[in-house]
Structures are given as C-alpha cells and as structure tokens.
Amino acid sequence: MTEDIRMVGDEHDAEAARELAWRSQSVGLAALDVDDAELMHSWRSDPVAAHQMGIWPRSLTAVRERIERDVEDDDRDDFLILPPDGTPVGYVALTGQNIVNGTAEVVLMLAARHRGQSHGTAALDAAVDLAFGELPMYRLTAETHTDNAPALAVLAKSGFTREGISRAACLHRGRRHDLAVFSLLRPEWEGLNRPRAWDA
Description:
Blueprint: E1 3-6, E2 17-23, E3 28-31, H1 37-44, H2 47-53, H3 60-71, E4 77-82, E5 90-98, E6 103-110, H4 119-133, E7 139-145, H5 149-157, E8 161-172, E9 175-185, H6 186-190
Parallel strand pairs: 6-7
Antiparallel strand pairs: 1-2, 2-3, 3-4, 4-5, 5-6, 7-9, 8-9
Helix pairs in contact: 1-3
C-alpha cells in the first residue's frame, strides 16, 4: 500500500513528496532514506532520547553511513512516522527479521517536541500490524530502560507483555541500566480489540 503525502513543517528544509509504505488511521510510515540523515541526526542528538534509548550522539556522516548500510539490509525495515500533516515526528523499525523463525524486534524513537501526542502508540500499532498482517512474523520483541516510563506505557498500551528484565545489560553515561524485555505474539495480536492499519 502506497500513498503520496506532502511534507510540511520546519523539520525539513524543503518540501518533498513522500510515498507512504504503510499507513494506519492516524499516521503513515515512509521508508527511511539517506536524505533523512540530518533529521535522524538531530533526533539522536537529543539528550532525553539518548538517555532513554541508551544511545550516544554520532556525527552526521556516521548516521548517513549507517542509514546507507541499513537500506541494503533485507532483515530490517526502517520508517519515518508521518501524521496527516506530513511532518516527520519520529522513527520506527522492524529489525533483526528472521523469516524462518518469524521473529523481529521493534525500535521506536520520537522527536522531543512530538512526544505525548499518541504518535508513539499509533506508530507502534502500525508496525505491529505490518509485521503480523503482511509479514510472516509470530513473535515481536522490544527492549527499553526500566526507568523509561513513556516507552513502558506505549508498549503496554499496544499489547506487549513484559517478560522480564535483562539486568545491567546497558552501559550509558557511566552507569549500568537494566532493560525491560517485552514481547507480543501473533495470537495475542489477533485478540487485540482495535482497528487494524488496513482499516484506515
């Protein structure tokens, strides 16, 4: 499913038509491209996102090179999150896809100024519907710091089950952090009482 959307807002220097690879009722997902490197770099440089995700700022060149490598990786799908007005508000990805086992990991990051507006839940639901509705996935996983309250809430709202904790699994800012491990299985997704992305 594809659809053109017009990019607006100050987060891109110039307007450009983006083709949606997937959409739900409130957001569209457009494939991440090398031209999005500056935007991704700005989001990764946000100290709150860096702390919550356990990442560190990287140079623009490094981010661009990483996107170039990821575009060629058949085991992942990376998307910009676009609400109806076309302004990029974040990033969601299905990584580590194993078609034989039917497994993948979900990664989500929102721009600082767009947090708390339900974009995270909408994007996660859309990515989950893609994984189970179009791809042959059976199990999705996600990890986040145990003190990342917004991410914990989004995962729970989208039907993910907290499986446990990976103790001291992440080193960030000189401290070890525990990671909360979540999963969602296909039968659990089938039982969720919410519209699917293709109902949009």
